[in-house]
Model the fold of this input.
Amino acid sequence: MTILLDIINGLNKFLGFLDISPKYSNRAYTLLSILPTVYILRIIYGLWLNQNYLQLVLYGLVLIGLVYFIVLNFFYYFLDKNVKGDITQLFVKYLPDDAFNIQNEQPKKARQGFKQAKEIDVDFNEDYQLKLVEDIQALIDEKEITTRDLAKEEGFLIEENTLYPYYYVKQASVGTYQLQIGKNYRELETIGTIRQTEPLRPIGLFIVGGDFVKEGVRYHEPYRLKFLVKTEEAATRTRRSKK
Done:
């Protein structure tokens, strides 16, 4: 068992060092979880041979749980599907909104015109746009941000109101928050400060500007970020719907 844990820990550290997208790292972790599952199956077989039925039942329950979540993760990360018997939806229903990263829902909100949302002022650092340009180019190169072929169609290189994939809002003190961005979640840097006495209910951090083509002419606007949060009305409706 110790050797198995050392192997898993080593693979976990190796995956942590790799600068890969969350989608593929989660796929790797899903496959990695098969190792302890197979080992527990071996333990259950030994308990069956020794007729130790009490421990067999306990390990059997653990095995069922592991297999269940492996199947859920396989459908979600490899097939982009949700299983009907997904109990994690209960957590979404009863836990508060800020307990989850709701980035997967934010692009839909963007296309709908950010209904029931408002933009929050951010006191950006003087040179934050240099950091932003560097990170956006890296994310484009890694194909984590999709772009438009400006040689074939007009519009912005990056679709307007595209969600910035790696950001974090850290509370520094009462009423003061730090906005951090990066090329991944391990390299986040503070680019600005948010000052607000009311609780923040983030919807997302969106990219605005950049290169665009209009009437056959290519222009450039500096990239900037737009931080949107839920309005009080939207937050109230969310709380009512959960009751």
Remarks:
- The helical segments are 2-17, 22-32, 34-49, 53-78, 88-94, 106-111, 128-141, 232-242.
- The longest strand covers residues 217-230.
